Amino acid sequence: DVQLLESGGGLVQPGGSLRLSCAASGFTFSSYDMSWVRQAPGKGLEWVSAISGSGGSTYYADSVKGRFTISRDNSKNTLYLQMNSLRAEDTALYYCAKGGYAPLYFDYWGQGTLVTVSS
Amino acid sequence: DIQMTQSPSSLSASVGDRITISCRASQSISSYLNWYQQKPGKAPKFLIYAASSLQSGVPSRFSGSGSGTDFTLTISSLQPEDFATYYCQQSYSAPLTFGGGTKVEIK
After folding, report:
1. Rounded Cα gap, residues B12 and B30, in angstroms
2. Is the peptide bond before B95 cis (omega within 30 degrees of 0)?
3. Which of A45, A61, A101 has the CB atom closest to B44's CB atom?
């Protein structure tokens, strides 16, 4: 079975940094795009970033471009999201999802890790 | 960016009802449209891809249709486990974008 397990969330002050991780299992990790999708409290879904299977291509929402960096370690079956210069509006539950541009959908999701940006 | 607009934002229905949820794209996205279901406190679940293809394991009472800019998710006979929020998502062009969601509540 496909499993995605996020970690690394927490409370951080505005301007601070956080690194999220997503451990994947149950599929050939390096063969698929992976994405981060977030959901602010009581709000809808917002795609944040995606990375190709090889890690050679990355994509970002305008709202995080220049502040967030997506990466992956295919030897460890792990996806990462380095978040810098955090703002209050980045407060959300961050989901790791399998897919993005290849395939063109998110077919499996983790349970999410909560990031709270507050002083 | 392609804007996705869902309607209604919420609806009340009874078990056994047939319901439809609409999703409109701000420009043509061909059939690059996916649907997800989310229950409170849970991660989204993938339902339909390419506008009308049912993901494996999803009950056949769910169906999707449309192309271009107008899409529909239909549940033919609403079951208790179907009360949830539904999101459409376009995969035609970057950035990937979601609709605002439609909450299906019990009447």
Report:
1. 30
2. yes
3. A45
pLDDT in tens, B31-61: 999 999 999 999 999 999 999 999 999 999 9
Nearest to A59 among B36, B49, B94 (CB): B94
Q: What mean pLDDT comes out for the span B82-93?
A: 96
Q: For residue A100, what pLDDT band results from cuts at 50, 70 and 90?
A: confident
Phi and psi torsions of B78, nearest 5°: -60, 130
CA distance A80 to chain B (A): 19
The amino acid sitting at B14 is S
Site of tokens 């950035």: B95
Average pLDDT over residues A53-69: 96
d(CA A69, CA B29): 28
Helix (H) or strand (E) holding A81: strand A78-83
Characterize the bridge pairing of strands A78-83 and A106-109.
unpaired
Distance CA A96, CA A25 (A): 13
The residues in B 49-88 lying below 8 A from A, measured between CB atoms, are: 49-50, 55, 87
The whole-number pLDDT of residue A11 equals: 98
Which single residue is written with the structure tokens 């509006």? A89
How many percent of chain B have pLDDT more than 90? 97
